[in-house]
Amino acid sequence: MATLNRPGASDGHVCGIDAAMEVIGGKWKVLILWALHEQPHRRFGELRRLVPGITEKVLASHLRELEADGIVDRVSYDEVPPRVEYTLTKDGIRLNDALGPLAAWGRERAGDAGS
Amino acid sequence: MATLNRPGASDGHVCGIDAAMEVIGGKWKVLILWALHEQPHRRFGELRRLVPGITEKVLASHLRELEADGIVDRVSYDEVPPRVEYTLTKDGIRLNDALGPLAAWGRERAGDAGS
DNA sequence: CTGTTCGCTCACCTCAGGGTAACCACCCAC
DNA sequence: GTGGGTGGTTACCCTGAGGTGAGCGAACAG
């Protein structure tokens, strides 16, 4: 509905999708989201193992961005050795929900040739 | 469940989302998709105008990638001046459908502060 | 004859996101 | 004391997606 060619869109986005794309635009973001979706309350090291190939730096920075975007919640326990847990916020859960159909589409076309 | 930590995923993807992300990963892909969704059968120049800020080179390459991925259909009429029309394929339409919830999520959090 | 439209293509350059790797403070097991 | 585990941080480098600008070949307006 003409969301695209409406010049007065709020904050530079022409439709909701690129607002979402800004959040999940990182290379590993969706994988982190997915890992967190399957098993909430993961720790840093667990996440690193769950997302094979990611480096600590990138995992940390992505986690920070997701936290800043209100997608994940970071809880650090003041123990020793230091323990930090990451969870999805309500917004993050809804984001993952919204990602569901997209995942289904991708899986469908990966399995089926997509005729 | 456990799609993530399953090492034997088909072609390098751990879940359907990153398969989808490969398709819509370009900076302007979703905008093109969205423009095509709102009004099918757009021409190159129209698309360029509909997606403000994109350059010809990038539009052309993104269009080519989308075509290679079976998302858009390219029909070139052998007239003069040359005319080319782009349409969404059935797969593209379903992709846009799958993008719907994501767009809703983005719009919701753009408008609402996300409490 | 010049300029413009149309749908690109080519060569070049920039820049930010991501990769590499070392390091930190702390504690426990050996 | 040494090594390993915790959860990071910092510095540097590097690749590739994307931006810039020009041109092309035909027709048509002026």
3D structure, described in words:
Chain A is an alpha+beta fold and about 120 residues long. Chain A is about 55% helix and about 10% strand. The first copy, chain A, has five helices and three strands. In chain A, strand 2 and strand 3 (about 85-90) form a beta hairpin. Chain B binds a DNA duplex (30 and 30 nucleotides) through helix 4.
Largest interface (CB < 8 Å): A-B, 45 and 45 residues
Strand order of the largest sheet of chain A: 1-3-2
Which percent bin holds the helix content of chain A? 40-55%
Sheet with most strands of chain A: 3 strands, antiparallel
SSE ordering of chain A: HHEHHEEH
What class would the helix/strand composition of chain A place it in?
A: alpha+beta
Q: What's the N-to-C terminus distance of chain A?
A: 28 Å
Overall, the morphology of chain A is globular
- Which residues of chain A sit in consecutive blocks of at least 5 with pLDDT less than 50? 1-11
Number of strands of chain A: 3
* Percentage of β-strand residues of chain A: 5-15%
Number of helices of chain A: 5
| Rg of chain A, Cα atoms, Å | 17 Å
Summed over residues and divided by their number, the pLDDT of chain A gives a mean of: 85
Question: Regarding quaternary structure, how should these chains be classified?
Answer: homodimer
